[in-house]
Amino acid sequence: MNFAISQPVTTDRLVLRLFTADDLDDMHAYQSLPEVARFLYRPPRDRARCAEVIERVGQGTHWKEDGDNLTLAVCRRDTPGVIGEVQVTLSSAYARQAEIGWVFHPGHGGRGYATEASLALRDLAFQQLGVHRLFARIDADNTASERICERLSMRREAHLIENDRDDRGWGSEYVYAVLAREVVPAGAE
Ligand SMILES: CC(C)(COP(=O)(O)OP(=O)(O)OC[C@H]1O[C@@H](n2cnc3c(N)ncnc32)[C@H](O)[C@@H]1OP(=O)(O)O)[C@@H](O)C(=O)NCCC(=O)NCCS
């Protein structure tokens, strides 16, 4: 699989596009928050780490090998600035399996922006990247992300008990997934 990714992606209220160096302050504003990092199994990111990430993900991606990743900055169409990001990572090129994720500034929460952006990325993954099965791994306490999975028509396929740990102790995860044929009209995949 080696797909050209057509971006920016526009939805009713949002634009999804590659990050640029000018987005550093906006990314740092949400990636540095402990409450945002809480369910990501890694510490909050400082400015230097955000700059490294932008340098890497801003170049776009090849969508060919295991580990290839597409990360898109999410902007509101009515206000300048980046409010969050959505990512999709190719976990198996052979089996066309990909993992989706989302991270948003809490100041823009509760208005459906994360759901709207994630739906657009789900459809891009199926229709442009040839993904067969899209999955998400969600901390079992991350109820906001559970609700996003459900709005993406993903089903809960697994409950992994204490399969990870961080400085708060053991963590458990849900695995959610959806197949292309379950949400994409025949012929559009
Ligand atoms: C996960 C995360 C993105 C969820 O944010 P969120 O604000 O709950 O998600 P949305 O932006 O989609 O908003 C959904 C809410 O807006 C409401 N809403 C309001 N207007 C809406 C609209 N026009 N369309 C859809 N939903 C709308 C929904 O009812 C929903 O509320 P509910 O969950 O109480 O039912 C956010 O908590 C986050 O970034 N967390 C940290 C990172 C993280 O944990 N990432 C996941 C790792 S796998």
UniProtKB/TrEMBL annotation:
Residues 14-181 form the N-acetyltransferase domain. Coiled coil: none annotated. Pfam families: Acetyltransf_3. It comes from the Bacteria. One of its GO terms (molecular function) is acyltransferase activity, transferring groups other than amino-acyl groups. InterPro entries: Acyl_CoA_acyltransferase (IPR016181), GNAT_dom (IPR000182), N-acetyltransferase (IPR051531). PANTHER family: GNAT FAMILY, PUTATIVE (AFU_ORTHOLOGUE AFUA_3G00765)-RELATED-RELATED, N-ACETYLTRANSFERASE DOMAIN-CONTAINING PROTEIN. This is Acetyltransferase.
